[in-house]
Design brief:
The structure holds three protein chains of three kinds. By secondary structure, chain B is of the alpha/beta class. Helix content of chain B is about 45%, strand content about 15%. In chain B, β9 and β10 form a beta hairpin. The longest helix of chain B is centred in the N-terminal third of the chain and has 21 residues. In chain C, α14 runs antiparallel to α15. Chain C is globular and about 75 Å long. The chains are: A mainly alpha, B alpha/beta, C mainly alpha. Chain A: Its main location: membrane.
């Protein structure tokens, strides 16, 4: 019993140490958002702010259009996640469940697309979008992000669908389920943990993407958060670290909510694993 | 339960697509070259700036709402540049009837984005960019000559001679053509601790130690001697820890060398784009840079804008070479040197110049209205609309206004520096300016870290310069 | 491991797979494959954004020659591979340690909060987190140097010297990507049935042995997934470097990504940049395939 407790203690200690190491930069960002400029560039650094100010938050809303950026980012990220999950599970299911002409080719093609450096796409996207008139639109960002998310999503879903036992599908067929019915009612619910993991990744990738939005977006009303926030750094002027951190903290909130609320689905992975046994 | 989810999903999807489709109308305005609106009397009122009443906000009476229905898109960097333009655009819109859209992109990526669009997308009617880039656009035929418009539709108050002559020449003219108006003057300035230089006790000590009088250095020799005196490593009695500081992080370090290069009679490239630094002057400038390193902070190579300025504002540095923007750090609440700083020309007397200019693209949809906007934001009164966004004036007459001169103690030094400056911070070579910057940065950093010998660095730089300049077909 | 796929014979069923994969295939074709070939075409042109469009012409493989004889670019390839090696190893090892702890029965009842906390680093926008790292790595005002000095160590010029700058770049990437590895590895560990462990422990195997002999082989697929995804992404690292060091000091932290970005956009040489990107692409394929192959072969 004693040994048991000692081990428990050691594990918790290790966890806490990891938490401190991993959360320090975030802690620094959040506390910086409540500091005045004088508290930020200081020796010794203020590990705990000696006084707190809301000035940075006021500035973020009055001087910068953080609200617009925030809504744009949410619209883009949420839509991208939904589209990515729908198209991705569809394809993952198709690849996992059927043998057909071109299956291997497309599987490889999708994996290879994941390897393409994003820089390759910048100029072609710009030129193509210019031609079809969807430059400077959120729609353009959404289709680009969805495509970028697909390889990873499909790959993950394929793995999860592969783990489902064949007998289950046969049973569904005997019960008279159509293929879409099997996908929607039987397969999909079983891979919910996988969907959640993929959804988090797709959401974050879209929510935080910078390079493509820089090229494809022009006007302030269509800017997303990363684009808006990076505009706060001017090269020949003191970086407003406090305001930047405040904007970062605000941008962080949806992601935080996502992290906290999806926990139980990630936990549900246990049930998914149990299916196999 | 599942059905419900299905429906909600569908709704959300359609809704978002509809919404984004709504936003997708790109605003292409009609191809109107000439004013269409009727000319009428307009009265534009703006609040006083620095107590000066702005009287000429109607383009000397040439605007009169006649550009109604026309749209101008101006591209620049996010932050002060965009804010300054937006501020002036408000009044221009009232006066001209045109609408102005300022599109801005984050620093560090703005140049790329704007170049891409100038070359491919043609969304912009005007661009406000660093001078070297503007000249690159001119060489590439991406911006147009302003002279025809100056001849035909200029405001009676344009007064080109009023621009500081060196600025008009180095910013506005390219190969003898007027391609842009100066928008923001910029030069390396010399900041020094006035309180220390004026302290009789310190003056006495300096006299004892060196046998010379302590004066604000103008020559490189005095500069080094004063820097040594104010460095604690060499003089334990020094009131400051470091005699000298600047930014020596990557993208900034070349300035330490450039600030002396012209002082010794060298240049980055001559008018035929031939490197002119691999000589005695270049070598001496390298040597001075290495001398200064002894009096600079140990962390010098890591100091970028924020840390270098914070260090100076903390009072640990006696002298610093920096862009005018340091002034706001000095004047900020947490500064320990508020009111204790003097401003001058960098020792050697040939500071490096930056600067921004505004130009019209050759695909401008409403060229006449665009020209009027350019003229408006750089006009005598128009300039004052940007002064609160750290965009200093470029016209002599504005520096002659006592209110303007009194608003910023740095202005006399800035004026002197602008007329003394000879080298542009980004080499004035079209197409490859950015590449040349990085070549210089890598070489200078190599020397500062002791990995490269100064002569070897100069040789390497010269070779790379020639190779890059030749590659784009510019004459050597 | 591979499940027997039901072979469908009926004609109406023939179309079924294509309906399922159709949307993905269309999107990927239009927005990935087509642009990729477009880029390949650009890489054969002397396309320079700052030159007038009329001067653009085919130059064959000149751009490839230019990139492959470009010293700094070749140097950056070496550093990119080193960087990838270290970050991926650290990612997977740390991710696995965290996953194992969080999956341990003794603490797993209370790990909910920890799991949420550990994935926070991937939530913060890179532009914000890298700027924060930049403050933290600050030479004079940085908390990291302050802590080191408090502990009696020497302050380090993190971005001013070669080795510290390289370490800083690795730290940022390890910090940002380990949560991702942890997330996948937790899901992986949960696919291992508990009774397998029980019977192994009854047989007297110790935990280390169980981990290497039973757990690892069972979740090999997931590890292959994590490693190959991370390798691909680590090879592509560039925005954190652009913000933190801009490739400096000198060109010591330039990666393939930053070199290509600078060539194509800062120096406006899109043709050469695209050629560099194609070379980069081939390197990524080769390295990733080697990884996949190694892990897959090991399994059989």
């Amino acid at each position: 019993m004693k040994k048991h407790n000692a081990e428990k203690f050691a594990l918790y200690l290790l966890l806490v140490l990891f938490v401190i190491a991993f959360l320090f930069p975030i802690y620094w960002a959040v506390t910086t958002s409540f500091k005045t400029a004088g508290q930020i560039m200081k020796v010794p650094p203020e590990f705990f702010p000696s006084s707190w100010t809301l000035q940075n938050y006021v500035e973020v809303f009055t001087k910068h259009q953080i609200g617009t950026y925030f809504i744009n980012s949410l619209v883009v990220a949420v839509t991208t996640t939904l589209c990515g999950i729908i198209v991705g599970t569809f394809a993952g299911y198709g690849f996992s469940r059927f043998k057909f002409m071109g299956r291997t080719f497309w599987q490889y093609a999708i994996i290879v697309m994941r390897m393409v450096p994003g820089l390759v796409f910048i100029i072609p996207y710009y030129i193509i979008f210019q031609k079809i008139g969807i430059l400077d639109t959120l729609f353009g960002l959404i289709i680009v992000y969805t495509t970028a998310a697909l390889p990873l999503a499909i790959w993950l879903f394929m793995g999860f669908f592969d783990e489902l036992p064949t007998e289950m599908f046969e049973a569904a067929k005997i019960d008279g389920c159509s293929e879409f019915g099997t996908y929607w009612r039987i397969a999909l619910p079983l891979i919910v943990p996988g969907i959640v993991v993929a959804a988090i990744l797709v959401f974050l990738a879209a929510y935080n993407e910078f390079s493509l939005s820089l090229v494809l977006i022009f006007t302030d009303r269509n800017k997303t958060l990363p684009l808006g926030i990076s505009g706060m750094i001017q090269l020949q002027k003191d970086t407003p670290f406090g305001t930047l951190a405040a904007a970062g903290t605000i941008a962080f909130i949806p992601a935080l909510i996502l992290a906290l609320t999806t926990q139980k689905y990630v936990q549900a992975g246990i049930t998914a694993g149990a299916v196999k046994g | 339960m599942k059905k419900k989810f299905h429906i909600v999903l569908l709704c959300v999807l359609t809704l978002t697509f509809v919404l984004s489709a709504c936003g997708s109308k790109s605003a292409e305005s009609g191809n109107t070259a000439k004013p269409e609106g009727e000319f009428k009397e307009v009265n534009v009122e703006a609040p006083d700036v620095l107590g000066i009443k702005l009287t000429d906000l109607n383009g000397g009476g040439t605007l009169g709402g006649q550009y109604k229905g026309q749209k101008i898109v101006v591209a620049t960097r996010t932050g002060d540049f965009a804010d300054a333009l937006k501020n002036a655009a408000k009044y221009f819109e009232q006066a001209s009837g045109a609408t102005v859209e300022i599109q801005s992109f984050p620093a560090g990526n703005d140049i790329e984005k704007i170049q891409l669009d100038l070359n491919t997308g043609h969304h912009f009617d005007a661009v406000l960019m660093p001078v070297a880039n503007v000249h690159g656009y001119a060489e590439g035929g991406l911006i147009q000559d302003l002279q025809p418009y100056i001849n035909s539709v200029a405001s009676p108050n344009l007064d080109l001679e009023d621009f500081i002559p060196s600025l008009l020449k180095s910013y506005g003219l390219y190969k003898g053509r007027m391609v842009a108006f100066p928008y923001k003057p910029d030069s390396q300035l010399f900041f020094y601790r006035k309180d220390l230089f004026e302290d009789p006790e310190i003056q006495k000590q300096y006299k004892e130690k060196t046998g010379k009088d302590l004066v604000v250095p103008t020559s490189v020799e005095d500069f080094l001697s004063v820097a040594e005196f104010f460095t604690q490593k060499y003089n334990p009695d020094s009131p400051t820890k470091y005699g000298y500081s600047s930014m020596a992080s990557k993208t900034n370090s070349r300035l330490v060398w450039q600030n002396r290069l012209a002082a010794y009679g060298g240049k980055d490239v001559d008018e035929n784009f031939k490197p002119a630094f691999n000589n005695e002057a270049g070598l001496k400038a390298m040597q001075t840079m290495l001398d200064l390193k002894k009096f600079a902070p140990d962390e010098w190579l890591q100091l970028g804008w924020d840390e270098a300025n914070a260090l100076f504002a903390s009072g640990e540095v006696a002298m610093m070479e920096q862009w005018p923007g340091l002034y706001s750090s000095i004047e900020s609440d947490q500064s320990k040197v508020k009111g204790k700083v003097g401003f001058g020309v960098t020792p050697g007397g040939a500071p490096t110049m930056g600067g921004w200019a505004i130009a019209m693209t050759n695909t401008a949809k409403n060229p006449e209205a665009t020209y009027k906007f350019l003229e408006y934001v750089t006009s005598k009164d128009g300039e004052l609309l940007k002064i609160n966004n750290t965009m200093d004036p470029t016209r002599t007459s504005n520096y002659n206004r006592p209110e303007v001169l009194a608003s910023n103690p740095m202005y006399p030094a800035l004026l002197d520096s602008l007329s003394a400056a000879q080298i542009l911070v980004d080499p004035d070579v079209p197409f490859v300016s950015a590449k040349l910057n990085d070549i210089m940065e890598n070489a200078i950093q190599g020397v500062l870290r002791g990995e490269l010998d100064p002569q070897a660095a100069l040789d390497e730089m010269e070779q790379s310069f020639i190779k890059e300049i030749k590659a784009v077909g510019l004459s050597l | 491991m591979k499940r027997d796929t039901v072979v469908v014979k009926r004609l109406s069923d023939r179309a079924l797979p294509y309906i399922f994969i159709g949307p993905a295939v269309i999107l990927i074709t239009l927005l990935a494959i087509v642009p990729l070939f477009y880029s390949l075409y650009i890489s054969l042109l002397n396309y320079n954004l700052s030159l007038p469009n009329t001067m653009i012409k085919m130059t064959g493989l000149d751009n490839y020659k230019y990139m492959l004889t470009n010293g700094p670019f070749l140097k950056s390839i070496g550093w990119t591979l080193v960087l990838t090696f270290f970050t991926v190893v650290l990612n997977v090892v740390l991710g696995m340690i965290l996953a194992l702890i969080l999956n341990n029965e003794k603490v797993s009842k209370r790990t909910k909060i920890f799991k949420s906390l550990f994935i926070l680093p991937m939530m913060l926008a890179p532009v914000v987190s890298t700027t924060m790292w930049k403050i933290m790595f600050g030479a004079i005002y940085g908390p990291i140097n302050y802590l080191m000095e408090t502990l009696g160590l020497q302050a380090v010029a993190w971005t001013g010297e070669t080795l510290p700058a390289k370490i800083a770049v690795i730290i940022i990437d390890v910090w940002g990507a380990t949560p991702f590895c942890m997330l996948i590895l937790i899901a992986a560990l949960q696919t291992v049935p508990k009774d397998i462990y029980e019977s192994a422990f009854i047989d007297g195997a110790n935990r280390v042995k169980v981990f290497f002999k039973i757990t690892l082989p069972l979740i090999r697929n997931f590890i292959a997934l994590v490693v190959s995804l991370r390798v691909m992404d680590a090879l592509k690292i560039f925005d954190s470097i652009m913000i933190l060091t801009d490739g400096g000091p000198g060109d010591s932290t330039e990666t393939m990504g930053t070199m290509i970005y600078k060539t194509a956009f800062r120096y406006m040489n899109v043709g050469a940049g695209s050629a560099g990107a194609m070379i980069f692409f081939v390197i990524i394929i080769v390295v990733s395939l080697i990884f996949l192959k190694l892990i897959r072969n090991d399994r059989q």
